[in-house]
Design a protein that fits this description.
Layout lengths: L6 H14 L6 E5 L3 H13 L3 E5 L5 H8 L3 E4 L8 H9 L9 E5 L4 H9 L4 E4 L4 H23 L9 H17 L4 E8 L2 H8 L1 H18 L5 E6 L2 E7 L3 H16 L15 E7 L6 H17 L5 E2 L1
Helix pairs in contact: 8-9, 9-10
The chain binds 3'-deoxy-guanosine-5'-triphosphate and magnesium ion (3 copies).
Enzyme class: transferase
Catalytic activity: 2 GTP = 3',3'-c-di-GMP + 2 diphosphate
Protein name: diguanylate cyclase
């Protein structure tokens, strides 16, 4: 006897695998005027699987922060030109680096002096000559916690797609880049059809499952480089750098067909089918990110007006 396939269970497992695939090594920046200390840090953290960038020149710190996007900075306090806490203050003045944890690593054992360094923007103060496994533990725990925090801040919790703010920020970065590189870029707005009816007929839980199923399809079905976000409620937005509008429309239409054929349902709910409408807009010369969103929105509106379950360019 064939038991019915438990789709939700399969899907939960798939999500788990997707989220666990290939954990990236922690990226660490170490700053110390002693080359011996830098070597030791590189060896100790490198052996623990971390990616270590090092410098003995505090003036390089901002450049290296920009270039390697480290997830933590380990900072010496006593250095010839700049003291570490001064450096921490400078890092903290840059809003884009405000979320990077800074850990001091120094011979200083004087508590008031340590506190002063922390008040300049440090998150922790470690004393040198600590056992290597302790250092590795502190760095891993700190990176892990900040990764989780960043995920909460940039992702939508129901779908794990980019949230509204992050998606718009990504678009505002992608548009000038496309202009600079003279590359095409397409933007897509998606809205699930008659979603209110789905909620009314099958309940909000079933509605949530529909949103999640579309999110999964978008996460798996788009080329690498695509930025996929939940724009709001049952609305999604996609930035496709390097993808021409016709190609974008075909990609989205293929997903539209798969979505419309996907049996929906939750526990104790009859199987039903959902669909979405989408508007695609190419980045036009001189267009701002906001104008691009408006253009895609307009195309979406047309797709709705023409009967839904279709993609319009
Ligand atoms: P249309 O085809 O014109 O898009 O019709 P619609 O019913 O989808 O349009 P509308 O935008 O008016 O309805 C969206 C509904 O989605 C309203 C809101 O109650 C519901 N909704 C928004 N966010 C969520 C959510 O996270 N979960 C669920 N279950 N419902 C949501
Ligand atoms: Mg020193
Ligand atoms: Mg809507
Ligand atoms: Mg809708």
């Amino acid at each position: 006897v064939n038991r019915p396939l438990d789709i939700q269970k399969l899907v939960a497992r798939l999500d788990q695998q997707l989220d666990q695939s290939a954990p990236e090594p922690y990226r660490v920046l170490v700053v110390d005027d002693s080359d011996a200390m830098l070597k030791w840090l590189e060896l100790t953290l490198g052996r623990a699987g971390m990616q270590v960038h090092k410098t003995h020149d505090p003036l390089d710190v901002l450049l290296l922060l920009e270039r390697h996007k480290p997830e933590i900075v380990i900072l010496d306090v006593y250095m010839p030109e700049y003291e570490g806490d001064e450096m921490a203050r400078i890092i903290r003045q840059q809003p884009r680096f405000d979320g990077v944890p800074i850990v001091f690593l120094s011979t200083e054992t004087n508590r008031p002096r340590q506190l002063m360094a922390r008040s300049m923007g440090g998150d922790d103060f470690l004393v040198k000559n600590m056992p290597p496994e302790e250092l590795v533990a502190v760095v891993s725990m700190t990176c892990e916690r900040y990764r989780r925090l960043r995920q909460w801040m940039t992702r939508d919790s129901l779908t794990l797609l980019l949230n509204h703010t992050t998606l718009i920020e990504s678009l505002e970065t992608a548009v000038p880049r496309a202009v600079r590189e003279q590359d095409v870029l397409s933007f897509v707005m998606i809205d699930i059809d008659h979603f209110k009816n789905i909620n009314d007929q099958y309940g909000h839980m079933a509605g949530d499952h529909v949103i999640q199923s579309l999110a999964r399809l978008l996460r798996l079905g788009l080329p690498p480089g695509a930025l996929v976000g939940r724009y709001g409620g049952e609305e999604f937005a996609i930035v496709l750098p390097g993808v021409a509008p016709l190609h974008a429309a075909h990609l989205i239409d293929a997903l539209r067909q798969r979505f419309a054929a996907f049996p929906q349902g939750a526990e104790k709910v009859a199987t039903f089918y959902a669909s979405f409408s989408a508007g695609v807009a190419p980045l036009q010369p001189g267009q701002s990110a906001q104008q691009l969103v408006e253009a895609a929105d307009l195309a979406l509106y047309d797709a709705k007006a023409r009967g839904r379950n279709q993609v319009l360019l």
